[in-house]
Automatic annotation (TrEMBL):
A biological process from GO: L-tryptophan biosynthetic process
Protein name per Swiss-Prot or TrEMBL: Glutamine amidotransferase
Gene Ontology MF, one: anthranilate synthase activity
Sorted UniProt keywords: Glutamine amidotransferase
Keyword check for Endoplasmic reticulum: no
InterPro entries: Anth_synth/Amidotransfase, Class_I_gatase-like, FA58C, Galactose-bd-like_sf, GATASE
Gene Ontology cellular-component terms listed: cytosol
Record PANTHER family: MULTIFUNCTIONAL TRYPTOPHAN BIOSYNTHESIS PROTEIN, MULTIFUNCTIONAL TRYPTOPHAN BIOSYNTHESIS PROTEIN-RELATED
Source species, domain of life: Bacteria
TM segment ranges: none
Organism: Aerophobetes bacterium
Length: 337
C-alpha cells in the first residue's frame, strides 16, 4: 500500500509509510531509475517507535531489464530488528532497476517509511547573482526552508538577494568555487528528528561550520549544528517541545530569553525578550571556541570566539507582532557586510 510514501521527501515527521499486502510469503519493492545509474549507498528507514513492521531478512538486487536480477551480497541482512540502516556497497553498482527483496519481517506485514539511493559524484554549484547575496543552506528534508528566512533578507534594507542550496549538496569546496562569494551563510532549521535522518548528509555543512571564513548564522536546527559539527552528542533531546510561534502559547509559563553577555547582535532587543520558537532538541555541550550569549530554559544564543558565527535557537526571521528579536537577523547581516 502507498508505494509513493517511500520517496516522500516532503513528509516532515516521517509519518507516512509503505506497507505490504497481508498474507504474502515475501515482498519486493522495485525502483526504476529511468536509465543506468551508479549507486553506492542506500538509506532505509522504518518505524522508530515500534518493532512491528521492521524488516528482518532481506537483500537488495539490481537489474538492467527488470527480469534478470542479481543479488548485492553485502546488502544481505538476517534477523535484523533495526529501524534504520545505511548500506554501503563494496563496489558501486550500475543498473537501471534496483529492488528490495524482503523475506521475513516483524509483525503481520513489512513497513517502510523511506528509502534513498545515492550515487557518487560532486553536485553542480548553484548559479549565483553578480550582486551581493546570502547563501541559505536549506535543512528541511526536501532541501529547502520554509521561506521566512528568504523573505526577511529580501525585505530588509540591505539590498541582498538569496540563493538556497540543499544541505545534502553544500560543502566547503562548493562554497570556495562560488564567484562572487556570498556575504553571509545562513543555516536554516529543519523538520525531522535526528534519529530519522541519514546524518552523513550533513557532513558538508559541518565542514562549512568548522572551516569557512564567511560569516555564518545558524537558526534553530542550524544553531544546534554549530555544536554538532564537533560532536553529534553536543545536542540532545529535551524530552519536551517548545512551540511558541503563536502568541497564545508564548507567555503561558514560557521562560523569557535572558541576555547574559552583551554583544552587538542584540542591538535594539530588550533584555529579557520573547521570540517564537519550535524545537525539542537543545545544545548541551559547547565546542571549545564557542560561548553562550543568551539562555532561557536552554541555551538560546551562541557565538564563535574566532570568527563571525552565531547560533540562535529561536526564529528571529518570523514576521510576528510579538517577536521581540526581529532585529537579531538584521544585526547579523549588518555585521556580515
Amino acid at each position: 500500500y502507498n508505494i509513493s510514501n517511500i520517496i516522500d521527501v516532503g513528509d516532515a515527521a516521517a509519518g507516512t509509510y509503505w506497507e505490504g499486502y497481508p498474507h504474502q510469503l515475501a515482498y519486493w519493492v522495485k525502483f526504476d531509475l529511468g536509465g543506468s545509474k551508479e549507486v553506492s549507498r542506500i538509506w532505509q528507514l522504518g518505524d522508530r517507535s515500534r518493532l512491528e513492521g521492521r524488516l528482518k531478512d532481506y537483500i537488495w538486487q539490481y537489474s538492467n531489464d527488470a527480469v534478470n536480477w542479481k543479488d548485492i551480497p553485502e546488502t544481505r541482512s538476517r534477523e535484523s530488528d533495526a529501524f534504520r540502516g545505511i548500506i554501503k556497497f563494496d563496489v558501486p553498482i550500475i543498473g537501471r532497476y534496483f529492488r528490495l527483496y524482503i523475506k521475513s519481517w516483524h509483525g503481520p506485514v513489512p513497513r517502510i517509511h523511506e528509502i534513498t539511493l545515492y550515487s557518487p559524484g560532486t553536485p553542480t554549484p548553484p548559479q549565483v547573482p553578480a550582486t551581493d547575496y546570502v547563501l541559505i543552506v536549506g535543512n528541511r528534508h526536501h532541501g529547502g526552508e520554509d521561506g521566512n528566512i528568504r523573505r526577511a533578507i529580501e525585505n530588509s534594507t540591505f539590498n541582498l538577494e538569496t540563493v538556497t542550496v540543499p544541505y545534502y549538496e553544500v560543502s566547503l569546496d562548493m562554497v570556495n568555487h562560488l564567484e562572487p562569494k556570498p556575504v553571509a551563510i545562513i543555516l536554516s532549521g529543519f523538520d525531522r528528528w535526528y534519529e530519522n535522518l541519514p546524518m552523513f548528509e550533513f557532513n558538508g555543512e559541518y565542514e562549512l561550520i568548522r572551516e569557512c571564513k564567511i560569516p555564518i548564522l545558524g537558526i534553530c536546527g542550524g544553531h544546534q549544528f554549530i555544536a554538532m559539527a564537533y560532536g553529534y552528542t553536543y545536542a540532545r533531546d529535551m524530552g519536551y517541545g517548545v512551540y511558541t510561534c503563536k502568541q497564545e502559547n508564548l507567555k503561558k509559563g514560557t521562560t523569557p530569553i535572558s541576555i547574559i553577555k552583551e554583544d552587538p547582535i542584540f542591538e535594539g532587543i530588550p533584555n529579557p525578550f520573547y521570540a517564537p520558537g519550535s524545537h525539542s532538541w537543545e545544545v548541551v555541550v559547547l565546542p571549545d571556541d564557542v560561548e553562550v550569549l543568551a539562555i532561557s530554559g536552554c541555551i538560546e544564543v551562541i557565538k564563535s570566539r574566532r570568527k563571525i558565527m552565531y547560533g540562535e535557537q529561536f526564529h528571529a526571521e518570523i514576521d510576528l507582532p510579538f517577536n521581540e528579536a526581529s532585529a537579531f537577523l538584521l544585526n547579523f547581516l549588518r555585521m556580515a557586510r
